[in-house]
User: Which sequence fits this backbone?
């Protein structure tokens, strides 16, 4: 009960600070501040827990050394795999216990009717949302480009990194996997600062 109350209070403060900009006014545009915040967030985007599903090639990666996924698993047009090697055959709505077992995560809360279906997949071939081998400048511009980011506004991008279960999974990745160098709260705070200060990109 206490934990729930704390969680609701946290949610409410996140909400009011994103609507009011904290003290009631939006922070001023600040290119240097925005770039610095993006460089912090970049450490998470390019961590194996995120990058392994945002590969430059056609195959998911695995492990802290981001090796190609075993069994030559491939993206497929919709990101769910090809032929018999569909991601959802092995990856469920939650992590399986034990090291080297398949990780899993559910659909977002908004998609209530799909909460029991496996969700684990790569971005689709048409918009592969590549994080691997992107410089900070390249990734920053790509994340702001609606043609390449799945048509997200900056506010929707912030919502995605705050709430999407695949993002949250990065901090609950199952036994034997490391977590990104910032906490989820710190990461969201950096993305929010980057956007609120005007979304400038490193050069
Ligand atoms: C035949 C079963 C199987 C299929 C099909 C499969 N996976 Fe996996 N996957 C696994 C197992 C098992 C692991 C854990 C490997 C380990 O930890 O050594 C894994 C690990 C991963 C990881 C690594 C997580 C990390 O950060 O280390 C990613 C990413 C991943 N799979 C994505 C996918 C995607 C995307 C698909 C579909 C395109 C897919 N997998 C299809 C069984 C499968
Ligand atoms: C299981 C694979 C998987 C993992 C793990 C994953 N993502 Fe994604 N990500 C996706 C897919 C698929 C999409 C496309 C939206 C969708 O289909 O839900 C996406 C979309 C995104 C987007 C919005 C589109 C864009 O411009 O890139 C962001 C931002 C993002 N992911 C960040 C992250 C971060 C940060 C992490 C790690 C903490 C992460 N993702 C981990 C699969 C994954």
Assistant:
């Amino acid at each position: 009960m206490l934990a729930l109350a704390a969680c609701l209070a946290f949610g409410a403060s996140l909400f009011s600070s994103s609507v009011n900009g904290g003290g009631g006014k939006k922070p001023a545009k600040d290119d240097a501040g925005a770039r610095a915040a993006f460089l912090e967030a970049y450490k998470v985007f390019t961590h194996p827990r995120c990058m392994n599903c945002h590969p430059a090639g056609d195959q998911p990666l695995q492990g802290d050394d981001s090796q190609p996924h075993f069994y030559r698993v491939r993206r497929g047009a919709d990101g769910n795999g090809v032929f018999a090697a569909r991601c959802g055959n092995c990856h469920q709505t939650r992590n399986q216990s034990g090291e080297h077992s398949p990780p899993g995560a559910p659909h977002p809360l908004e998609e209530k009717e799909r909460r029991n279906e496996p969700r684990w997949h790569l971005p689709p071939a048409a918009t592969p949302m590549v994080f691997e081998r992107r410089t900070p400048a390249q990734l920053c511009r790509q994340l702001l480009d609606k043609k390449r980011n799945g048509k997200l506004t900056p506010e929707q991008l912030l919502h995605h990194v705050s709430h999407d279960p695949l993002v949250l999974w990065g901090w609950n990745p199952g036994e034997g996997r490391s977590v990104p160098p910032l906490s989820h709260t710190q990461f969201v705070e950096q993305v929010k600062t980057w956007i609120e200060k005007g979304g400038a990109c490193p050069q």
